[in-house]
Specification:
The structure holds two protein chains of two kinds.
Chain A (H helix, E strand, L loop, with lengths): L10 E8 L6 E8 L6 E10 L2 H7 L16 E8 L11 E4 L2 E3 L5 H4 L10 E2 L18 E5 L4 E2 L6 H4 L5 H11 L8 E5 L3 H12 L3 E6 L5 H7 L4 E4 L3 H6 L4 E6 L8 H5 L1 E9 L7 E3 L1 H5 L4 E4 L5 H14 L5 E4 L4 H9 L6 E5 H4 L5
Parallel strand pairs in A: 10-11, 10-13, 11-12, 13-14, 14-16, 17-18
Antiparallel strand pairs in A: 1-2, 3-4, 3-8, 3-18, 4-5, 5-9, 6-7
Helix pairs in contact in A: 4-5, 4-10
Chain B lengths: L10 E8 L6 E8 L6 E11 L1 H7 L16 E8 L11 E4 L2 E3 L5 H4 L10 E2 L15 E5 L4 E2 L6 H4 L5 H11 L8 E5 L3 H12 L3 E6 L5 H7 L4 E4 L3 H6 L4 E6 L8 H6 E9 L7 E3 L1 H7 L2 E4 L5 H13 L6 E4 L4 H9 L6 E5 H4 L4
Parallel strand pairs in B: 10-11, 10-13, 11-12, 13-14, 14-16, 17-18
Antiparallel strand pairs in B: 1-2, 3-4, 3-8, 3-18, 4-5, 5-9, 6-7
The chains are: A alpha/beta, B alpha/beta.
Chain lengths: 361, 357
């Protein structure tokens, strides 16, 4: 008898999955493992929709195995803990982000850099240590090793805080690592979407002077009045770009569409850093001189380790940082994906899983 | 009557200049300013031939002003000092590298990073003021930009450090690739690369030389002390080295792909560009994101750091591997340099061979 998602594990679960590269999501009955000694089992309350979910369900990266249940910005309430679990008890609010496992013994894991572990396990669509695929947060419940579970801060809203588990850490981590977190630092944020709007909030909380770069002039008002950015530049406007030359200490570039970074490099001061957190498909062109002449750097950054994600959540709770969200029922998810493709959301959809998911008939 | 190089300043000087993009160098009579209060005047003893000299005289960077007297790896002996000069006295040995001026008041200058000052004045072919470099009999330079030459550092073998040396030393320090036990790659074994290997070894770093030329392996390992050697065109060797390096210093100015080099880096690894190909590089985003890797540039070093580097080199007995030449060999030297036919820097014996006809 062939093993199916429904039978491979002992505990029934239900969620929404995509079954082919149309990316269209529909109810799926699947299964999850029993709660192991170090596991935390939780009912999913909310799950953010990350643009990566959209890329993945359409197999844009060529690695998707169907059916896939996406979702890696997951907030829930603990229903069961294994006998060796120390950090959580039933009833606690918890979060799970983009990773549910790593080898726990390599150099990266030992230094709290699980995201660089060569054996890391993604929250969805990834091979787990037992050989089965992982299923993400568009589902009724999850079970995860305690190490990958985050404690949810008391005063952090569950729905609008959920996107921090990917968008939040993805922007917080490089601001810290690349030293762009000192008060008075001049930071640029390219792209005002899920990542970008959170990047602005994080940078402002660090005391930075923030400049938003966007190709959509209509976003200026929201950037300045809504998100409290200090400046807004239409990146297609040559004069505005020229005036910004040599002014920024660093830039967080959230844009995943193909775009030219040369004009952005020009806005950096000497020793300035351009950090890519979006992943354009085409390689970016960079003239060596543009890096040499001002000792500038182009770097990438990808989420953050578990410890740092916890730190980020606590920082967000302390500074009142949440994402701007549109809460939706799960059966709206396909429409949400279509709108997300057109960037028609301010700025993250969050699925009200607990109140809208039902077992498939 | 327009002023010419010969008449624009009061003190006569003799040098070798290129007069057009053929890059052919020949004698020129020109002139230099008098020794001001803060100036140091010195007789040039040696001048290294940097690949930038070749790029510049041929107008590869489209910014050449002719006649151009190149040379920015200059060692000499002081003949006169201005009244306010404190750093050196007549008879002292000194060096001048790639800069002879900057604004001295911006953030970069205040941080001893004169090379990033927007008003930095290059030793030759400067875009604002006209400057003439070290292929000449003597120079005059503001005290601030004079490097004191350590007693025990050879003048001829040490000259190339003033550009090649600081160009590799500075990013090793800034990007933190100078910690004992680290593993750093050096791409290209030429003027910059060979000095890079020596500095890294002096820092206690494990060094892998990455080259397209398998013939360089012997020298890399036996003479320069590199720990290993990778032929970049050999897929098997490159594959085996994936994810093993904390950093890479890329000295190559020919066009070449960066993606294979990025794959050699460990997470958080750093690829530093000190060579400048003419074609833009292509940077793939995914590998940078997946490992939080960075690609950064670096340009020479500030004066304070150049002095520090020279003192470090003296202490660790680091000099460039050179071929000493008379000035009238310079055009042949440039042809050979174009073909990378030198182990690894030509140095012109100026004092003994540059004479008025």
């Amino acid at each position: 008898m062939a093993i199916s998602p429904e039978t491979e594990h002992p505990i029934k679960a239900y969620g929404y999955a995509s079954r082919d590269n149309s990316g269209s999501l529909s109810p799926l009955t699947f299964s999850r493992r029993a709660t192991g000694e170090k596991d935390v089992r939780f009912k999913v309350l909310y799950c953010g929709i990350c643009h990566s979910d959209l890329h993945f369900v359409k197999n844009e990266w060529g690695i998707t195995k169907y059916p896939v249940t996406p979702g890696h910005e997951i907030v829930g309430v603990v229903t069961e803990v294994g006998s060796k679990v120390e950090k959580f008890k039933v009833g606690d609010k918890v979060g799970v982000g983009c990773l549910v496992g790593s080898c726990r013994s390599c150099q990266s894991c030992a230094t709290d850099y699980e995201q660089y572990c060569p054996k890391q396990v993604g929250t969805y669509g990834a091979p787990n240590f037992d050989g089965t695929q992982t299923y993400g947060g568009y589902s009724d419940h999850m079970v995860s090793d305690e190490h990958s579970v985050l404690r949810w801060p008391e005063n952090l809203p569950l729905d609008s805080g959920a996107p921090l588990l990917c968008a939040g850490i993805t922007t917080y981590s490089p601001l810290r690592y690349f030293g762009l977190d000192k008060p008075g630092t001049k930071v640029g944020v390219v792209g005002l979407g899920g990542l970008g709007h959170v990047a602005v909030k994080m940078a402002k909380a660090f005391g930075a002077e923030v400049t938003v770069f966007s190709t959509t002039p209509a976003k200026e008002q929201e950037a300045i009045e809504g998100l409290k950015a200090d400046h807004f530049i239409n990146s297609k406007d040559e004069q505005q770009m020229q005036a910004a030359r040599g002014t920024l200490d660093g830039i967080i570039d959230t844009v995943s569409a193909n775009h030219s970074i040369a004009p952005l490099l020009n806005t950096l001061t000497p020793h300035g850093k351009l950090v890519l957190v979006g992943a354009p498909e085409k390689p970016l062109e960079v003239a060596a001189f543009s890096l040499i002449m001002g000792r500038k750097t182009v770097a990438g950054s990808n989420i953050g380790g578990i410890k740092e994600t916890q730190e980020m959540l606590d920082f967000a709770a302390e500074h009142g940082i949440t994402a701007d969200v549109e809460v939706i029922p799960i059966d709206y998810v396909n429409t949400a994906m279509e709108r997300l493709l057109k960037s028609d959301v301010r700025y993250r959809f969050v699925i009200d899983v607990a109140n809208s998911i039902k077992a498939a008939e | 009557m327009g002023s010419s190089p010969e008449t624009e300043h009061p003190v006569k000087a003799l040098g070798y200049a290129a007069r057009d993009p053929s890059g052919v160098l020949s004698t020129i009579n020109f002139s230099r300013r008098e020794t001001g209060d803060e100036d140091v005047r010195f007789k040039v003893l040696y001048c290294g031939v940097c690949h930038s000299d070749l790029h510049s005289i041929k107008n590869d960077w489209l910014n050449a002003k002719y006649p151009m007297i190149p040379g920015h790896e200059i060692v000499g002996v002081v003949t006169e000092v201005g009244s306010k000069v404190k750093k050196v006295k007549v008879g002292d040995k000194v060096g001048v590298g790639c800069m002879v001026g900057s604004c001295r008041s911006c953030d970069q200058c205040d941080a001893d990073q004169e090379q990033y000052c927007s008003k930095m004045v290059q030793t030759y072919n400067s875009h604002a003021d006209v400057t003439y470099g070290g292929y000449s009999d003597h120079m005059v330079c503001n005290e601030h930009f004079i490097i004191s030459w350590p007693e025990d550092l050879p003048l001829d073998g040490g000259a190339p450090l003033l550009c090649a040396g600081i160009t590799v030393y500075s990013p090793m320090r800034y990007y933190g690739l100078d910690k004992p036990g680290m593993h750093v790659g050096v791409v290209g074994l030429g003027g910059l690369g060979h000095v890079g290997v020596m500095f890294l070894k002096a820092f206690g770093v494990k060094v892998t030389v990455i080259s397209t030329n398998p013939n360089k392996k012997e020298e890399a390992v036996s003479k320069l002390g590199a720990d290993s050697f990778l032929v970049s065109r050999d897929q098997t060797q490159m594959q085996a080295a994936v994810g093993t390096m904390d950093g890479i210093i890329d000295t190559v100015s020919a066009d070449h792909p960066l993606t294979p080099l990025i794959s050699l880096l460990k997470p958080n690894g750093k690829l530093v560009l000190v060579g400048a190909p003419t074609k833009p590089h292509e940077l793939p985003a995914f590998p940078l994101l997946a490992g939080r890797k960075l690609v950064g540039g670096s340009l020479i070093g500030g004066i304070k750091e150049t002095q520090e580097m020279i003192d470090f080199a003296a202490k660790h007995k680091i000099t460039a591997a050179i071929e000493l030449i008379p000035i009238d060999y310079i055009n042949t030297a440039m042809e050979r340099l174009q073909k990378s036919d030198v182990r690894y820097r030509f140095v012109i014996d100026i004092a003994n061979t540059l004479k008025s006809t």
